[in-house]
Amino acid sequence: MTILNETKLSSELKRKLTGALLRYYREDENMTINFVAESLGINKGYLSEIERGRKEPSSQMLEKLTNFMDIRFNTDESLYFNLKDKFQYLYQLYVDLKEEEEKALYQEILKHSSMYENSYGFFYFKLIEYMYYVHFCKEIEESLIFEYYNLIEKNKHLFNNNEKGIFYDISSVYFISKKNSKKAIKQLQLSEHYLSTSTSKVLKSMVLYHYIFIYEYWNFTPKALTYCDEALKLFLETMNFNRIIQISLRRATCYTCMRLYSEAEELLLDTIEKMKQNPSRFIAVAYNNLSWNALANKEYEKALKYAYTAIENGTRYYEIPLFISYSLYKLKRYEECKEYIASTLDTCELRVEIKIFLAMLEHALANDHQSYIRYALNYYELMKKDNNQEMSLFILEIICDYYRKRNNFKELCYYQEQEINLLT
After folding, report:
1. If pLDDT is split at 50, 70 and 90, which confidence band does 348 have?
2. What is the secondary structure of 276-325 as a DSSP string?
3. Torsion sign, CA atoms 58, 63, 65, 71
């Protein structure tokens, strides 16, 4: 991504920035345009033209407006270009997966917020804040995210098309994280629109990459694989090793979803070998995926081996206790399974669904069949609500096996229909 070291604002851009900033502070103070115009004895239409960036206020008028709104306007133009360059650099760090450097730069910028307030760089500063919240503040209030989103959307005329494309791409990341696929795909379509004439392979590759997550979520695996191919081509051209690795991991996930277990395992093992040559933090992720792939293929010894290797490589994947406990159970290593569940519940912070699954196995080990199936059905409902097709199919197989062994054909037929619905 090219960073241009400009130093002087054009008169048109300066006019637009000044108007947008005046409008922002007026609205932030809940003042109507009528109120400001009447209070200062100026024409409402003239003030509207200033705020829209169509007319340039005289120095006297600007002073009048800033005094009325109690703004100390910083006219240092270098702040604008400083933040513009940093915004582009931050996105490049994000693309390159240099999280520590990215986070450090965000924090350095944010601690100087008072310098950027009331300056020409204000809207870049708000865009940078927005990106920081999306990438690093997962528990932030949705209302605050939308406040930033609406502010930038309202003032998007202040940014060039590449920057608008980045904004909508980053917004898609937020909605993907919230599993709001409809809004996410709308953001990606807007990003594509603004990047249609762009020559930046970096920007276009990230949009394609984020489409993969949406089609995986919708269980359109062949479509997700198509986007894997398109994104991979651009990542290869830009020599982005970490993103190439991520594409391989996503492709393997698609293979597992399509029951191509041998192909998934082969790809993951090959990817691990490449990562050993160029050390990567994604080795643990690859072993997580290998463990799940083996479990889905009922290769329980392999599932255990890969899960323990993932732990050795520092995995933080929340489903690893599920992989280990269920593999031990299916291998009839019951005492080991009991001990593992007990120690895991005592020492680990687990997500609710994992606690439910482990409780299900505890009841199976205690021959408490009614509690076993109750927890299994509870887990299924959570997976269905989460639109997690793979884990829904996994638990449905367990449920169907339970009803088959008890000759409960009514319930068996019902849950087999659920399986068919997921697969079609």
Report:
1. confident
2. HHS--TTHHHHHHHHHHHHHHTT-HHHHHHHHHHHHHTT---TTHHHHHH
3. positive
CA distance 416 to 239: 46
SS3 labels along 4-31: CCCCCCCHHHHHHHHHHHHHHHHHHCCC
Higher per-residue confidence, 7 vs 139: 139
213-235 pLDDT, tens per residue? 999 988 899 999 999 999 999 99
- Quote the radius of gyration of the chain (alpha carbons, Å): 27
Q: Do the Cβ atoms of 357 and 324 come closer than 8 Å? A: no
Q: How far apart are CA 50 and CA 23, in angstroms?
A: 9
- Residues 83-104 have pLDDT tens digits of 999 999 999 999 999 999 999 9
Please report the pLDDT score of residue 4 as a whole number: 47
Name residue 74's beta-bridge partners. Answer: 119
Largest CA-CA distance found in the chain, in angstroms, rounded: 88
Please name which of 130, 121, 211 lies closest in space to residue 170, comparing C-alpha atoms.
Answer: 130
Mark 101-138 as b/e (b = at least 16 C-beta within 10 Å). ebeebbeebeeeeebbbbbbbbbbbbbbbbbbbbbeee
Written as one letter, the residue type at 61 is M
Q: What pTM was estimated for this model as a whole?
A: 0.89
Residue 167 has a CB neighbour count (10 Å cut-off) of 24
